[in-house]
């Protein structure tokens, strides 16, 4: 009997030793909470006449050790970053300026990261009229490779927002040259897509300029895609 027990213990040790370690899981994307998307942030703590400290908040994401907050001034294109293990972080940012922000979830056990959606907002200041937020290019995504349809066409899609709610139209620039300088179409404010003609084995560049009733405009930046 003693021999049987010893043999059983020996086999158990072998099985435990051979058990495969679980593979670390990649972090998941965080859900943004505040500042709200396409809003004016009025809760910043005044630091001086030109700057206030804003607290950014998001939901905890699974399999995440730390978060990288990235806040970009849409006028200067300057990005501030900070890393935290919390689900909030504070940054000093300029008053009366438009910003975008996102959060990257990280885990030291894996190389992959997960990126949240990107939200735009204005930090409150003394301005009385707001430039439209840059249009967000939705489709085709930047760097995409795709096939044209049966009519040799592809549909460009975007979203747009303005705190004043006075967008009057969009200028669509589309070309095989970067940056695109050919005005493909000028569209009414109700439009959020435009169909363009394309050819196979070409790379195309496009952007959207959003215009409002006060004479303000914003540039989406350039996206590129390849037609197979």
From TrEMBL:
> Its domain of life?
Bacteria
Q: Which PROSITE patterns match?
A: PROKAR_LIPOPROTEIN
Q: Which protein are we looking at?
A: Fibronectin type-III domain-containing protein
- Source species, please? Maribacter polysiphoniae
